[in-house]
Amino acid sequence: MKEAPAPASLPPSVLVVDDDPHGLVALKAVLAPLGLRVAGAPSGRDALRLLLKERFDLIVLDVRMPNLDGFETAAMIRQRAATATTPIIFVSAFSQAEADVARGYGLGAIDFVTSPIVPAVLRAKVQAIAALEADKTRLLGLIAGAREEAAIASEFLSIAAHEIRRPLTVIGGYLSMLVDGSVAAGSAAGRKVLEGLFVKTEEADRLLTDLLLAAKAEFPRNAEAIVDINTAARLACERAQSRASLIGSGIDFQGLDRTLEARADSADIGRILDNLIGNALSYSPPEAVVQVRVIDADTARVEIEDHGRGVPVELRERIFEPFFRIASGDPAPGSGLGLYLSRKLAGRYLGTVELLESKADRGSTFTLSLPGSRASLSALPPERP
Q1: Interval 96-106: pLDDT, tens
Q2: Which of 45, 306, 315, 357 has most Cβ atoms within 10 angstroms of its Cβ?
């Protein structure tokens, strides 16, 4: 589940509309100390054209303009969905203020200032309204991001429920055969049923473990943990050695003769490397040797190279999606969450898991990269509370 992007932190924007060139310059000068993005339009029509291209948090609109006055301009602004709720401050001559106020509020004006303008008054009104509008825009962005996250989470849970139902369905079928007596527990057929129950129970357990890890990956990281990437890679190779021997494969570890530190949790890095090395063994032919290389470059990097069938170009990003398998009925064990989890866990520490290279029937190279020197650790943002 992806993390929602942070809203942009641009200053609020204001569009000033006045047919008098001197008045336009004066209004922009009054607002300049506020540090806002201020644009000017010399007529109502120019303002409408500008609003088609750009979004503004606030409009300061002179009432008395030839051809298309401020009220007519405001009415057209309100007709467009994109600007229907944009706040408008009308600028009205003092002598006309009473009549203009009634008409302006009918067009959705949020405030009025009278001419000649008192700079401090205009600045106070613009600053307050523009800030509120910018906050509203950021809040709407957060709400939209939350809705997208909720939709992604719902889809994830739906797929997860489907995936976990598969081994449970098989387990239920096997148990019913034993319960109704159609298979005797002590017979050869019964032993095969029990073996099937054991395999499917392990499959369900692995899936539940991966789902719990997926949930953990959404929580804040341990900001103080330091891991030696070289040691973590060596230990992962040692853990995978018995499986490699069992299937007739080998693991060639090419490490460093010193430590290579990164700010990350050693358990998380161990899980990532276990996943990548396990995949390399699963997709390599018998007697193939998986290479695991530790590299100290701009980042601390571990490369895992297999000799399998490779990943088609069109699927090289999809393999990082949850539950995605390259082909249905894929014989390699796993839940389809390994690469997804690996990338999520690495991302907690500003790291990445990528498919570096892949060639058909010649193998693939995956890489784990993390900020790798003490100096680079300062690039990590502060831990969320």
Answers
A1: 555 556 566 66
A2: 306
